[in-house]
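A sample copied in:

***
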Amino acid sequence: MRRTPLIATASVVAAVGALLSTAAAGSVAAPAPATAGASVPADLTLVQVRQSLLGSHSWYAQTYRGVPVLGGWYAVHATGAAASVDDGRRAVTGLTSVSPGVARASAATAAKGHGNARGSRLVVVPGAAGAAATLAWQVTTDQDKQVLVDARSGRVTKVTDERVLASGSGKVFDPNPVVALQNESLKDANNADSAVPASAYKTVTLANLDGSGYLKGSWANVTNSKKGKNAAAFSSTLSFPYTRSDTRFEQVNSYYAVDRVQAYIQSLGFADVNHESQDLSVNTTTQDNSWYTPSQDTITIGTGGVDDGEDQEVVWHEYGHAVQDDQVPGFGSGSDAGAIGEGFGDYLAATMSQGNSADTATTPWVCVMDWDSTSYTSTTPHCIRRLDTTKTVANRTGEVHDDGEIWSHALWDVNKAFGRDKATRIILEAQFSYAPSTTWAAAAEKTVDATTALYGATDAATVRAAFHARGIL
């Protein structure tokens, strides 16, 4: 289910993530920012309002003569006595007309090499380094691509892969068989029931179902088709007693993981963080990967190696991307923000396991996705990534998953200092105020500021020290 926008303008709602992404290389000076408390500039369209513990956060998309401007955004954070403004509007110069010379259908045809069109809209692409802006059709395809087609020439000028990928695949029980059995020697054995002892399974309550007989509820919605190899699980009695050799097992495991993480977020006091039924497409790709697609607001779960739906830590990681996209439309533009996204996803996976499993030498909390990673790691403990590496900013590589270990370590140090609930509350509160293309330093400062507002200067100094230790501040 797509989240319901606060406005009815379809062109703004569609592909909000792409709307706020950088569509042209380089950048130019944005219009002068409005001051806090001033009226909102006229060139904006409201995208959403989110309520945090400290106040409200209103996000706007920039427009030019009524057409969305790629990469243009504006935010008003009403926290405390006065509002603050983050101004991400882009300069639009040299564009004399917003009437396309290429028809919408022709743009869809031009984009066909990247998939069949799901939708399209007219956008303004700001020019780089003072160059003139251009008009383009932004085509969303069924291959999770955003394709820019020049609205004058009909030429494809940019293709963006929307998927937010996790480096690996695997799903489990609670949170997975390796942790549940404290056994690093388990192997997938091609989904055989015999590969995982029955004692690894846990019978749980599947809460918040809508009663339709499908795995559809308040906070999670398995969107698999009703027929075919990977058909959606159905039970008129709402009983889903599958084992891992049945493809429906991963649907149940994924539903439970998402329902549980949303319940935890709400327990921290947040009633407006991805507060929706999150779509889950389970076992619908054979890739050894899973990902979140912003324009579709869907988490896709793969079956390569260990089926990702068997490892709840994989699902929680992907849900982290959905959370950030909900808090900040289009979050993740740029290498710093991308690494923050991966680091937060790993942190969320670790802290969810922290709430329901022991921290042992065999399966330490800082080792994430330890069942999924058995397919392609030889050393133990099996980990896709860790939250306690020695990496600092000096070790960054530009690969967002690798660099995410720098950010996740800082978050984990905050967790160790304050405990799971307090740390996660700080982190979630801070994320409301991140810019879509934030830098590490800027996001760290926002996290320090949130700590000050929630808990005071002494705790804020502890958070600052955690980021300083990683070379971020």
User: Anything to note?
Assistant: Residues 165 and 291 are 4 Å apart (CA to CA).
